Input
Amino acid sequence: MNLITINEPVWNGGKPYFSIRDDRVRDKNIFVRCSHLSRQGNATYPNTFYVDGDALRQTKTYTERWGTAYRVFPKELPTLLFYVTIAWSKDGEDFEETYVRSCYDDIKETVGEFFDKFPMRKPYVECCASESSDGKYKVDLTESIKHDMRK
Output
C-alpha cells in the first residue's frame, strides 16, 4: 500500500490539483489523502482517493520548483470507502454490525471503540474491505485489521 499525504492542494484558480513527486509513485495502488483543513476546521477533502500508479506513470510530468511531479485532480479521482463487519454470538445466535468509514484509521478507531464498549460480547472482526467508488479497486483488509488490533 502506497499512502501519500498531501498537505494542501495547488488551488490553480478554482481547479485544484495534487502535485505528487514522481519518486513517490512506487506501487500500482496509490492512496492519496489531503490533510488540508478549511477555516472552519473541516477537512477540505475528507475521503481517501485511489490512483492507479501504472496509469499515472503514463501521464505527463511537470517540473516544479522542488522536482518532477505528476498532477492529479481530486474531482477526477475515485474515492475509497472502508467497510468492517464486527460479529459476536449470544445464546447460540449470531449477530453482526457493519460500519462504513472514509479512511483506514477511522476503521481501526471504530473497531477499537466497539471492542472497548462491548467486551462482554467477545466481538471479533468478521471481515474488512476497501473499495473505490468506480469499482476498479477492491481489497480484503481482514487480516490487516486483525493484525493492527492486536498491537
Observations:
- The chain is about 20% helix and 40% strand.
- Residues 24 and 30 are 9 Å apart (CA to CA).
- The radius of gyration is 18 Å.
